[in-house]
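Reposting from the mailing list since nobody answered there.

I have sequence plus structure tokens for a pair of proteins and want to know whether others read the tokens the same way I do. The first protein:
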Amino acid sequence: MSKILVTGGAGFIGSTLVDRLIKEGNEVVIIDDLSSGKKEYVNPAAKLYKIDICSPKVARIFQKEKFQFVYHLAAQIDVRKSVEDPVFDNKINVLGGLNIIENSYRHQIKKIIMASTGGAIYGEAEEIPTTENYPTFPLSPYGIHKLTLEKYLNYYYHVYGLNFTVLRFANVYGPRQFKGGEAGVIAIFVENGVKEKESLQFGDGLQTRDFVYVDDVVDGLYAAMNIDCRGEINIGSGVESTLLEVRENIEKALGEKIKIKEKPKKLGEQRRSCLSYQRAKDVLNWEPKINLEEGIKRTVAWTKSLKK
């Protein structure tokens, strides 16, 4: 059994990870300001500190709890919000993340595992599916700031010996995800579809993304705790899916058409994104198990259950 900190542990991916860590017999502490996380997602066996990751009080929590491992998932996750307010995005995703890294080093944790982005870090890649070695030219402040924090981790490893692994996620979706952020497009369309409301589609619908189901992502996060790999590992499906294909799968799961209003494409939005998971297969012994059709079916079922 290990004592583990999960930042952002009340969020969509974080809370699902916390459930898994507790199921495996670990003691889990959460830091989450609940700005996007939900208290009802917090596992009752976990200890929650409602606090901002930028707060100086974070040091006291590290001092008191004496963690062995840290999962850093807390972030400003909305790509479009990062475009509108890069300074705020920098504050949370760089300075807040740096606060967690600095405390991890000072309190001698065994390892930090960081949730980064594969969807936003490579920019308009010519190599599809994109490997971790591809040059990083992010097209949004969100992608820039995630890359910055990756570089800080590398610095803390080389200078101070802080062990780390970075997982670069594709577009994660599934139960507990709510509206907000580019990666939330499935959540937005499903929720509106279930409520018979209109959804906005930005662009022609032929832009592609790599959608990976949350349970698969958590499998990757869990495996990352026990590997010896400093560097970046993509966690994606390796499949390019258009927004139109997403719509078709949602309509299939719902058994009816969804209402869509088309709008011009957004600034800073990539045309294509798809990740190679070969390194995850080699290093983590990981590969995705849930395809898009099955994942959307499960997401629709969960969303419908909320209405009851």
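The second protein, same order (residues first, tokens after):
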Amino acid sequence: MSEGETSWVRAMDPRDTKLNLLLLALPVTCYFAYIAHDESMAFIFSLLAIMPLAFLMGRATEEIALYTSESLGGLLNATFGNAAEMIIALLAIYTASQAASGSDTETLMIGLVQASLIGSILGNLLLVMGLAFLWGGINFPEQKFSETQVSSNGSLMMLAMIVLIIPTVFNSTVGGTEGEEGVMQLSHVAAIVLLLLYGLFLYFQFKSHVDLFATETHDHEAPEMSKRDAIILLVVATILVSWMAEILVHSVEYAASDEGLGLPHLFIGVILLPLFGNAAEHFTAVVVAGKDKMDLSFAISMGSSTQIAVFVAPMMILVAWALNVPLTFEFGMLETVSAFLAVLIVNIIASDGKSNWLEGAMLLGAYAVLGAAFMFHP
């Protein structure tokens, strides 16, 4: 969750929001996972349970950030904004490390991690930004946002797409065992480079050029929770997300089978996991767009995609490296091309710093076609 989200997210009191009704999915998930042993239903309800928990994590992070400096607060928001997806990916990597090398379980978990990372990028760029442009455009003929955000985030995203494309091209060019080993080493180097660049980007955004990113939403706000309560909320929500994610990861294999829901693992990773894990964040971006706060809306959608591409993805590569899991940046031809085209079309549409409802409809159309491609992928 980016720093600019504070004003709206904090307005949604965690005790009042109707999203908390979905917390009822917690005991239901436990029932199906531990008593009824119905993995398909456990998968469905664990997805639902993660939605309100992810919102509570974001709410607690916003409160803690108010007790810190602006730069540290921005780093906290960047780190915990995609925490639900990070936890799911980490658990999938750990599960892969416990499976036999080359087994179906290891292959499925690696594919799930790669698909969820690509899905987060596609969801934020096409679905969230598309809905924001459409809803904002219905209420206002034309809306404007910071071209600096487009330029800086867009450049980083294009760099990340190069990192995704090169391993795929490298493997297809070299091929065989040498190609696989080369892709592995290339991915490790690329992950380190991306993390260094992400650190420089944070310094640029929150220290050296903070004035370029300042908007009206950065005004000081008094905390509504004590620091102790916010930390407790963050810890409890994180533990519960981890618990639900553990159930989710272990039920994915059955949900993707013909005996279960029969959903392709690509569709689960690319569409379902990012959609439910970031639902509260997505809702925020659309609502503030309807209030003509496009800088804030753009910061949520584009900023979150940037964090996934240049922080979360390389971090998962390094964690997998440490656990001896063969996770690389070779995400597959369909996933790579989809992500590249999504970044390209968003950079083109947003380059002028203006938006309207038609541009939003275009982004949603592109997301619908890609979603169908992943749904029908064998």
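Reply #1 (J.P.):
I read it the same way you do. The beta strands are 143-144, 354-355.
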